[in-house]
Structures are given as C-alpha cells and as structure tokens.
Amino acid sequence: MTAIVLAAGKSKRMGAPVPKVLLPIAGRPLLSYVLASARAAEATRVIVVVGAQKEEVMASFERVGVEFVVQTGQHGTADAVLACRDLLNDDEECVVLCGDAPLIRPATIQRLIQARRAAGADVAVFTARLADPAGYGRVVRAEGDFIERIVEKRDAAPEVLAIHEVNSGAYSFLWGRVRPALERIKPSPVSGEYYLTDIVREVRSDGGQAVAVLADDPDEMLGANTPEELVLLERGLAARREPSAD
Fold first, then answer.
1. Cys-Cys link to 36, which of 134, 145, 199, 245 (CB 3.0-4.6 A)?
2. How far separated are the first and last CA of the chain, in Å rounded?
C-alpha cells in the first residue's frame, strides 16, 4: 500500500511563518503523526506532496524514508494527487491522507482499504457525521454505503448544506482504476481548483462506485486550520499514544 500525504498547503489562517504541517503539537510537527500512522498501517511507500515552503518540509523529513513530489501552484487536491502520477503503477493500491490531520489511526487507514475491497468499489471515502458540519464538503449518498457525489461547501446548494455527513479528505483506491477519472476532473467554476472530491462523480460516470466509510470517532478527521483547532488536536493527542515517525 502506498500512502500519498497532502502537505502542500499554506498556513495563512494560522498566521505562522512555517508551513502548516510543521506546526508543533506535543513537541512534534503535525505531519509526523500522519506519517507514523501510515507506516503503522503497513504502508510500503509514503509519498509526501509538498508545495508552499517545500524546502522546509523536505528538510524536516528527508531522513525518515519518504518520497517527495512538488505540486506547482495551489491548484487543489486532485492536482496534488496527479502530481504523483510518474511515481505510481496502475496496480498500486493507494490511500490519500491529509498532512494536517494527525488523529487518524492506523486501524482506520486499514479499514478504509478493506471496505473498498469488500464493496468492490473504485474508491472508498472516509466520512463523518458532525453536529456542526460548517466548513466541510458534504457527502450525498446513493443507496446504502455508496456515495452519489461529494459537494464542496462553497459549491453547495442549501439542501446539500443541510446534510451532516462530511468528507474527511482521506481516500482509498487502485491507481490504475482512478487515474483516467482524475485526469478528467475540471476546475471548480467558483474557486478554479481541481477537487479530489470530484473523483466520485467521475468514477460513477464510468459505471464505477464509491463507498463511504463512516468514522467511529469523528475527531480522527480533524485538521488544523485555525489556532483554536490546533489546541483541540493537541488535547486529542494527549489522550492517546501514537507511534513515532522517527
């Protein structure tokens, strides 16, 4: 299994001089927890997609056995994953993880892979139901655990915003089955970004399926977008022991 970790974002809302994934909690950078979980989930390769202030991220993790890919420009999550295309084989099983979401457990990563296999789906998406889903892309279900589409908040109609199931940003797929669909994704007319969430629509247009894997613990999907969220993540980490990334 190959873990693709998205770590190209800036930390504008944090007001920090360092990349967001290098912000420290419990004495370690955010990204280190995600890498540790990927390894504990038995990832045989870890590819980190870098962009903003890439030199700092690469220097911080150059000795921990990861590969780096540079995303040129801030063009969205689908573009970030496609930046890895020259490193991936069609039969490679991949998971996509967010570099600023340190609470995801190794067992959850494995569950994401197993759920996709069991359903015979092209894509599995880690989702959560939140009392306050504001700010997250909404998951529109088809039948059972299958997903019809995922809609980013900024593109969502009021009836979609009323949905409480949200996308976490973590996915599982076989590269050869989703690569053509990824290459067809068009930029959002609102933001101009290429959303990885659109992979659900694209695989369904080919007759494929995407399955939702609902979180037992919604805190596992939490990312760090504000100083307040960073405090919440530190509290969450204090309640558990995580494997070391070193």
1. 245
2. 20
Each residue of 175-206: pLDDT tens digit?
999 999 999 999 988 888 999 999 999 999 99
- Confirm if 103 and 219 have CB atoms less than 8 A apart: yes
The CA distance from 71 to 83, in Å, is 6
Q: How far apart are CA 223 and CA 230, in angstroms?
A: 8
Return the percentage of the chain with pLDDT > 90, whole number: 73
Asked whether 213 and 124 are in contact (CB, 8 A), the reply is yes
**The residue to which tokens 């994704």 are assigned:** 185
**Averaged pLDDT for residues 45-60:** 94
Q: What pLDDT, in 10s, does the model give residues 115-154?
A: 999 999 999 999 999 999 988 999 999 988 999 999 988 8
| Residue pair 137/166 in contact by the 8 Å Cβ criterion | yes
**Domains of the chain, start order:** 2-238 (3.90.550.10)
Distance, CA of 160 to CA of 162 (rounded, Å): 5
Reading the block at residue 118, the tokens are 């069991």
